[in-house]
Fold these 4 entries.
Entry 1:
Amino acid sequence: MRFRARHPNAIRHVRVTTGAAVLALVCTQAQAGPVGTVSDLSDPALAQGYTLIDTRPEPECLKDAPERARCLPAEWLFDDTGELLVTFHVLRWLLGTIGLSGDETLVVAGPPAAGQTAKAVAGLAHLAGQAEVFVLAGTDMGNGPGGAARSFSREVVYTAPIRDAALIPGQTAAPMITRMITYATKGGRVVFPAKL
């Protein structure tokens, strides 16, 4: 006898063999968010290479970000109330000005006290189409030679397709930064204004 579950995160199937008292359960793990976490830049998940972005204010990034970091301040993306300042068109242009095409493994970093902001930026980059995104957790960013400022024009054209299946047009009371943190850590779909 075989039963099939209809929900994708439920038990996939149960097979009962009469007389043998055998019960096999094949379960799926709960879906985690699309953004991973690494504790340092030597993590095996980054062995094939990565691009590091520093989400602190640009003067801080330029002063002492880790080597090869690119500066993309969170304040360019979110306002003081946590709402989004850019459309996807502008976001993808900005990502091109820091050398991203969307194919790279991206590591998003920021000061430990603002780790949630780094998660929001990481979630936004993933929605924009970035291939793989991690947040660098618990790291003091202020001990490197300084990051690189973005170009005034695109260094490369950002070509990764937007993950529009994860977007729901509409309005909600939750600030965009909160929605991005939830998306980064738990996945699911995100309510976005139709203009984006």
Entry 2:
Amino acid sequence: MNKDDIRRLSMKLLATGLADDGQVYLPREGYRKITASLPVALQEQANLFVEGVMAIIPNDFSFWFFFDSKGVNLDVEFADGNTSASAFHGYFTSRKSMSQKLRALNWDELRAELIERGGIMDEMVSKAQDRPVNIHSSKAAAQRYAAELVEVFDTFKNASKTVPFAMAFVGRDGGVIDVQDYPSRDAVVYDMAEVMTVGCQILAVFENNIAWSFEDIETAKLEAVEQLGPISRAKAEGRFFV
């Protein structure tokens, strides 16, 4: 394989069982577990590709690849204590250009900048801990959007197909109600945590087209915030939104 042809490696990986929604994911941590199922020759190519980047990026930075049909997305992250931050993002079709770009970065300066930024976030978390938890009430939110929710409830009531789980929510500043489907309760709780961090208000949750009680929603929200790190939890609990 031409060492500069990332697209060729991508296409080979996409033709395997590793592909999910048109992409193949390979992280710095645990990549060999993922590539272990590949044919030996392709496994070696994929491992060497990841290890070539590992030789450039310092080991206190995490990174992961998303291969698609045209090339690869590379995301690099730095974690320091309670905080993590994006350090670099790029899309590449050439191994040579990727290596040149990564070698040109001053990783020491980048680390220092991210640590300083993390210190500011730590201070914000410390201040947020002194504020009361202010998780929105789904019952109150649903009452504010009662008229709009009629259509949502009617859709599930009259649906010809049963949906395992679904959640209706709206952004912090209002707008159109978003309804998402999920395969399991765990998936609902996971996404609940994500949307709460950006101030979304949970209006309703459905299981097999039947709405949960507001008590069940509040219980799930408490489970959701337990999954989050300090900064995200403070956001989800409404201690950053003042």
Entry 3:
Amino acid sequence: MAAKKNNGYLNFNLGWLESKAVELRTYVDDHPIETLRDRTDLRQTQNGGMVTVVVASVEKQVRSIRETLKDHAQITEAIGKLREKEAEEMGIGSAFPQQSSYIEIELGWLELQVQQLQAYIDHNPVDKLKDRKVQKTNSRGNSYDVNAATIEDQIRSIRETLKDNILLVEAINKLYKKEKDRRNLRGGSRPNLLMEDEA
């Protein structure tokens, strides 16, 4: 009789990966796109004075969130594959029931984030964009403007957000299809696709 494989490393790796997915999710949840503002900081000049600089424009923060969402979708898919492998190695055959609920929860959350990206685009119509400045006051009490984002920076952010939105919707639909196939094998109900053709 063959000895059963030790799943210790796979279980550890899966647990670690899930904890990292939670960290990424928390980062996105803690930084809703509609609340983002240009982040500034004081930096010392060569002459010893202080100057305000934009350390993270809204566009830079949105890019970080978009990239995090794309990575999260890939990690969710990897977790699903690892759970399937774990089930196979344990001789269960089909994946654990909690795999489906985990993936469905993550897909629901990703859908909400896609809606936030779409709201960001809707709230920044390209024909209404202007160079964005942040007003600061120096140590002498004088006010001055700091460039936060040019029109071109903002348009690039909108363009990249549109492309990433399409990629995310495709990734979500791919995961939904895999989940649908899994459910069909078990005789369960079918999850909804984001951009499903209405027939």
Entry 4:
Amino acid sequence: MQFDILSNFVENLISNVGDLSDEQKRFYVPQVTTLLEERIGLEMLPKLSEAHMEKYTELLERESTTADEWKTFWEMAIPNFQGEIEKILVDFAKEAKEMLSAGGEGTGGTEE
């Protein structure tokens, strides 16, 4: 499943931030994964042609769409799809590390 890949990416990202407890990781992983999914959508959807947008809608509405079908669609619809995703992940990782580092500070109480 494609979202497992994103969750694994986020788990690795969070693990590299520092000393987050398991509870903090359970809190952050779903939230950060959702943000990453949204970012990918915001970056990729505007790049779709009208015909590809119709195919995207068709795949989205069909509950039986497989991960392979999504992969095939994105690779067909977006030139250099892999490169686009890598750029999004690198940019997202930088922003997420900053966010998580700031969020991880002072979690034991308020210091302001």
